[in-house]
Amino acid sequence: MAKDKVEETKELEWALIPPREVSQVDGVFLEKNMCNNWDKIWNFQAKPDDLLIASYPKAGTTWTQEIVDLIQNNGDIENSRRAPIHLRHPFLEWVRVNSFSGIDEANAMPSPRTLKTHLPIQLLPPSFWEKKCKIIYVARNAKDNMVSYYYFQTMNKGLPDPGSWDEYFETFMSGKVMWGSWFDHVKGWWKKKDSHPILYLFYEEMMKDPKREIRKVMEFLGKNLKEEVLDKIVNNTSFAVMKNNPMTNYINDIEMNHSLSPFMRKGVVGDWKNQFTEDQNKRFNEDYEKHMADTSLSFFEEL
């Protein structure tokens, strides 16, 4: 079948997928199937050797997952392409269209497991704290995160239709997006790192000096890789390489329409300048100051 015909077929299939419904758990907006599955999610039993990768959506999660997988496999590129990333690292709270959940995938996986979540701190299953599991959290500046999340929602049927950019700006500002308020999310995890083994990474620092940040992850995981292996990991987790890697770019996910917006869109710092109006930037800065007044957490909005 010709490539354009394949793309047309994919778009038709995507158009036929019904939009996911949204509900809430403790005031946090989540996809309805997650809420219906909440007892199973909340009671998930972590194991002491589990590694959890946590983040707000579109903050560098997939990037961090691929870095972790390559470190765990000593830079073995072929091994890291053994399966799509969502199968290598089960998405804990997600429930797929076929009703098979991330919890099911995690429970079927042998130890040691690497798992992924976007849950805010207060909704993480308590067994992760009880078992003192290592957690890597990655955070991205709010403006770029908002823009990336907006475009992700336009192409992903697993998430609500974001509406226009102006409408989405208001939704994000009010925290009424899936997985809740960005402010609550990043601050909650930042505070928790003082009492739990959490490596808190910043997207902007990863962009600025990827090798330094990859070395932090390596040391946190208790590994000791040679410099040439680290260089190999830096190269193979670059935006260009990952964008062309079908094992990381969700190319075959039927819920994502890459013709509307690619899953890996730009991978830059400061793209918010191309999206925010002057008034929106002023409003956001005022709101940001209020929300972040009670934390030592800070971000770069450009490099």
Structural commentary:
InterPro entries: P-loop_NTPase, Sulfotransferase_dom. Keywords: Cytoplasm, Transferase. The N and C termini lie far apart (about 45 Å). This protein is globular. The protein has about 300 residues and is an alpha/beta fold. It has 16 helices and 6 strands. It has helices at about 5-15, 30-35, 40, 60-70, 75-80, 85-90, 100-105, 125-130, 140-155, 165-175, 180-190, 205-210, 210-220, 225-235, 240-245, 280-290; strands at about 20-25, 30, 50-55, 115, 135-140, 200. The strands form 2 sheets. The chain has a 4-stranded parallel β-sheet, with helices on both faces.
List the helices and strands and how they pair.
Layout: H1 3-16, E1 22-25, E2 28-31, H2 32-36, H3 38-42, E3 51-55, H4 61-72, H5 77-80, H6 85-88, H7 102-107, E4 114-117, H8 127-130, E5 134-139, H9 142-155, H10 165-173, H11 182-192, E6 198-202, H12 203-208, H13 210-220, H14 227-236, H15 239-243, H16 278-291
Parallel strand pairs: 3-4, 3-5, 5-6
Antiparallel strand pairs: 1-2
Helix pairs in contact: 13-14
Domain Sulfotransferase: 48-295
Keywords: Cytoplasm, Transferase
Main location: cytoplasm
